[in-house]
Amino acid sequence: MDIGTKLRDARQSRNLSLRALAEKTGFSASFLSQVELGQASPSLGSLQRIAEALGVSVSGLVAAESSSGSVLRRSARRTHRSEWSKATLESLLPAGVDEKLQGMLIRLDAGGKTGSIHYAPGRRLLAYCTAGAVVAVLGEPAEEISVNAGDSVVLDGPRKTSWENRSEAPAELIVVTALLA
Fold first, then answer.
1. Which CATH number fits domain 78-179: 2.120.10.30, 3.40.250.10, 2.60.120.10, 1.25.40.10?
2. How many CA atoms lie within 13 A of 156 on its CB side?
3. 167 CB contacts (<8 Å, ≥6 apart)?
4. Domain boundaries, the chain
5. What is the DSSP letter of 169?
6. Cα dihedral across residues 164, 131, 61, 52: positive or negative
């Protein structure tokens, strides 16, 4: 099942119209419809905002079902490509394993950026740069942290964060978040 279908199913299971979801997210109903139909590719930050409004995780939207229970083979992982972000996203956990724990692999092309992602209160984030270099652009309070291959950073929510690749080479980042309570 693709992300648009999962978003539509989540919206409908909550008895929300496209207009009601538009009011919750600040996006137009037309844009949300295009996302559900696979006609628009939202930034990763926009996808996060839609998922939050529906009470689902981005990791869960991208996650593939696993025939091996708690094991997700690399060959079974699904990717989500955002041309706007110049980024590819993969869930590192099988669908439905644990909503308290989320693991994502983010690949950013040269000049790629995720858009602002809100990490909720009670969430702790671990980011590990596996290749290239990225900049964590943090909000509230504003701060930038350069993260090179082999570096890691730990942040606590609530915090708005975007990841940017300001270099000419691709970068790769593993982001794991956990609900602390």
1. 2.60.120.10
2. 4
3. 110, 132, 133
4. 3-60, 78-179
5. S
6. negative
Rounded Cα gap, residues 110 and 90, in angstroms: 18
Q: Looking at the predicted structure, is the pLDDT value of residue 68 above 80?
A: no
pTM of the model: 0.83
Question: Are 50 and 60 a contacting pair, CB within 8 Å?
Answer: no
- To the question of domain 3-60 being in CATH 3.40.50.1820, the answer is no
Question: Cis peptide leading into 170, omega within 30 of 0?
Answer: no
Q: Which residue has the tokens 């989320």?
A: 102
Q: What is the pLDDT of residues 125-174, one digit of tens each?
A: 999 999 999 999 999 889 999 999 999 999 998 988 999 999 999 999 99
Helices 3-13 and 29-36: angle between axes, nearest 10 degrees? 120
Summarised one tens digit per residue, pLDDT across range 81-139 is 888 899 999 989 887 776 788 899 999 999 999 888 888 889 999 999 999 999 999 99
Return d(Cα 75, Cα 58) in angstroms, integer: 20
Phi/psi at 8 (5° precision): -60, -45
- SS3 label, residue 155: strand
